[in-house]
Specification:
Distance between the termini: 37 Å
Helix content: 55-70%
Number of strands: 0
Strand content: under 5%
Order of helices and strands: HHH
Radius of gyration: 22 Å
Length: 83
């Protein structure tokens, strides 16, 4: 699983080629930023965001149904809330 929590696992590393804005690359190098780690971190973030977007899209109907239920009936077990 990408970006998951838990024990460290050995992952196969693969080389790739990217084209980056020259000024951005120069600044990153000047600041000592590890380009590979930064790119990987950005990809992991983009993957998480896209997975969340897809999940929301795939479950939009169920979410709408639940929201309509709450609107009509209130939150389940709300009488037991202490706040």
């Amino acid at each position: 699983m990408i970006g998951g929590r838990g024990a460290m696992t050995h992952r196969t590393r693969r080389s790739t080629s990217m084209t980056l804005d020259g000024d951005v690359l120069d600044e990153a190098r000047r600041l000592g930023i590890n380009i590979s780690q930064a790119a990987e971190g950005g990809l992991v973030s983009a993957i998480r965001a896209e997975r969340a977007r897809v999940w929301k899209e795939e479950n939009a109907g169920a979410i709408d149904d639940y929201n309509a239920f709450v609107e009509a009936n209130g939150v389940l077990l709300s009488r037991f809330r202490k706040f």
